[in-house]
Structure formats: C-alpha cells, structure tokens
Amino acid sequence: MIFTRTQKYRSTTPREALKTRLIGHHVKIHNMDFEVVEKEQSLRIIPHAEQAEGIKTLPITKVEMKEEGNKMNVVVTSKMRKLDLGGPLLIIIFSSFLIAASVILMLVGGELKISYALLGLGVGILLLFFVRMQMGYYDYIRKIRSYIESQMDFA
What we know:
The chain is α+β, with helices and mostly antiparallel strands and 155 residues long. It is 45% helix and 29% strand. It has a domain at 5-80: START domain (Alpha-D-Glucose-1,6-Bisphosphate, Chain A, domain 4, 2-Layer Sandwich).
C-alpha cells in the first residue's frame, strides 16, 4: 500500500539478545506510548491509542528476524492501522478527482479559471496532507526505526 514502509538491516546481534532488548519495553514518541510484544515468531510495536487526544494516524510495526550464520537479517515493516486508513485514502481520492476534473476541463475547453482553481485546490490539499503526514505518521515510523536501530549491533 501507499502508507507501508519497509526497511532491512543486517545485524551481528543474536536473535534472542535482540528479543530480550526489545520485548516488554515501551517507546515514547510525541507523548504516545508504543509497546513491543511478541506475536507469531516476530515482534510487533503497537501503539496505546487509548491515551490519544484527538484523532491520530498511527503505525503498527512488525519486526521479523532471520538468522544466517553469524549475521541476522532484520526486516522492519510499518503500516497504518486499518482503523486509521479510511481518512487518508479519502483525502487522496478526493484531491485526485479534483486534479482529474481540472485536466478534463482543460482538455475539453472549459473555463480555464475554474480548471486552474480545481488544479490548485487539488495540489494544495495533497501538499498539505503530505506535510501533515510527514510531521505525524511518518515521524512515528522514523522514530520507531531509530529505536530498533539503537538496540542492534552492526558489523
């Protein structure tokens, strides 16, 4: 999906050592608490959204570890909670329709002022949306990744 981010690492930290460093710990990001739990042979970093004041778009992060000799491949995948997915998708679809409508109006010879206004509105909404996502959702992802990196040893 458009909101899923994956990062791969190679670490010298043994699997069990990394698990003990992460499992049960809490990560505080923007006054939001994230807890690391083990689920189905991988680790999950899950937000405690009951503390949230207002509506927040939060990621659920999955950490998969596979050992290859004395190295370990760590794959960190963050994706948006299904509960939060509707709003951002509606914003993208709405602004895409505005941009498509402006292009169609320009091609069929409609009023150029209206076409430019629709185009500007669609692009403006998308830009504002992506700036807000960088300050919120993607910032959570960056800080969760940096926390995981801080617990690993690299070759």
